[in-house]
Amino acid sequence: MFGIEHCVWFRCLMNGSNHLAESDTRPLHLCPVDLRKLQWSIGFDVVERYRRLRDFHRQEGFEDEAQWLDKRLRFIAPNDGSSDTR
């Protein structure tokens, strides 16, 4: 999709899988390489995407993913002040 092939660089959503159990163990996030490929392909603000995904995950009870996104937001936008610090 979007011309992005399976990831061979990091463990991320774009890793290939041969069966459902293997697919179910992949993380829900994109690695930096595939995030940049998707951003280039369709265009979006990474910080805003992470904020919206974090809010969605938290609302749906996926606290581990929300915390991962909080950590990424603190890393990529440390002076922004709008990322949740939980």
Would you mind describing this structure in some detail?
This protein has a domain at 45-76. The mean pLDDT is 86. The chain contains 4 helices and no strands. By secondary structure, the chain is mainly α.
List the helices and strands and how they pair.
Blueprint: H1 20-24, H2 32-42, H3 46-59, H4 63-76
The average pLDDT score comes to 86
- The coarse overall form would be globular
Query: Between the first and last Cα atoms, what is the distance in angstroms?
Result: 34 Å
Number of H/I helices: 4
Tell me the major beta sheet: none
pLDDT < 50 runs, ≥5 residues: none
Q: How many strands in all? A: 0
Oligomer: single chain
N-to-C series of helices and strands: HHHH
Radius of gyration from the alpha-carbon trace, in angstroms: 14 Å
Helix content: 40-55%
Strand percentage, roughly?
Answer: under 5%
Structural class: mainly alpha
Give a brief rundown of this model.
The protein is mainly α and 86 residues long.
Summarize this structure as a short list of keywords or feature phrases.
mainly alpha, 86 residues, 4 helices, single chain
